[in-house]
Amino acid sequence: MPSDTVTTLADKTARATPLALARRVRALSDQAIAWLFITPTIVLLLAINIFPLLWTIYLSFTSYRANQPGRPIRWIGTRNYERLLGSEDIWGYMQVTASFVVWTMVIQVLIGLGLALLINRNFKGAGFWTTVILIPMMLSPAVVGTFWTYLYHPQIGIFSYIVNVFAAVGPLDMIGSVDLAMWSIIIVDTWMWTPYIMLLCLAGLRSIPPYLYEAAEIDRAGPLQQFWHITLPRVMPFLMLAVLFRGIENFKMFDMVVELTSGGPGSTTELASINLKREAFEKWRTGYSSAFAVILFVTVFGLANIYVKALNRVKQT
Amino acid sequence: MTPDTNPQPVPSRASCLRRFFRRGPWENAATALIAIGVVMLMQPVSMTLFSHAFGVILVGTVGFVIVSHFPE
Questions:
Q1: Could you tell me if residue A98 is inside a domain?
Q2: Could you report the per-residue pLDDT of A197-217, keeping only the tens digit for each?
Q3: Closest by alpha carbon to A253, among A238, A275, A284?
Q4: Which side of chain A, N or C, has fewer Cβ within a 10 Å radius?
Q5: Are residues A144 and A209 in the same domain?
Q6: How far is B12 from chain A (nearest CA, A)?
Q7: In this complex, how many residue pairs, one in chain A and one in chain B, have their CB atoms less than 8 Å apart?
Q8: Are A238 and A314 within 8 A, CB to CB?
């Protein structure tokens, strides 16, 4: 076929381009063309990510209230930060957040590692059960929160029914009880995110060469010694990664808890992010909540740095 | 036995600085500072520790960003 009859999309585009424009584009250097392509993305990133961040930092030093847009913005220095870091209420919300993060991490690591050890045995139907276990992780947190409110319902919920099968305690109001509300969100988060921990542990378990166990058996090491000296050290970097990632995510947990308890009863499940939303969009203390947001942002950013460092360490192993 | 006629080379100031500003130990220090700050922020024991937590995290985070540009 002669070359001039080939009509690809590139040919068509080239022919349709006006000659003057084509000459101008040809005069551009490679670097200029690269900048031409990158610039829209950079502008978008600046507009969506960087500008709001810088604006929040600026607002955190002011007494601005978003429900009074006509009022002049007054610079008050670090007063918002001083008020936040001297507030016993904020300290309390941080402790609620800590309690949620620590308990979810401990339970999820134990169950996740256990499940990974089971799945790693490659029994019949292991693939099917792995898929079944992974399903909760694929759901939206808002959906999970909504349907667990039905499961937790004291009258019609299946959770209360199952508990009453084992112990006759009457209608169990998980969400409405001061003692049980925290456990209600811990259980849901564990149900949803244990598969993620399991998946990472499984990756760690699959990376252990079998000859290590063979050598250990020759040396008459028992199953517990094999677990302690081979399995655990090899899985640990993956486990660290999972804990850091889930720790960061749970530190800024919002949607699922809002759907389930909205921070109640009282403030027993009021995590830092839920209080931040309350301050910003219910009390309209924009400057104060911006300072709170900056504190949470710096904390998450610091933890993310540790996460990236751990990730690099896992890559090296 | 012949005496050693080649004395050890004296390390230059630049190499001393380079050895001092290695990424590894500084990064570990910044990481430790961030971790301590997070614990201070969420502990239930002392309000004073809570009040100083943000400063510690901020120093650790900014420090981490700076030291991650140090040579290996």
A1: yes
A2: 999 999 999 999 999 999 999
A3: A275
A4: N
A5: yes
A6: 31
A7: 54
A8: yes
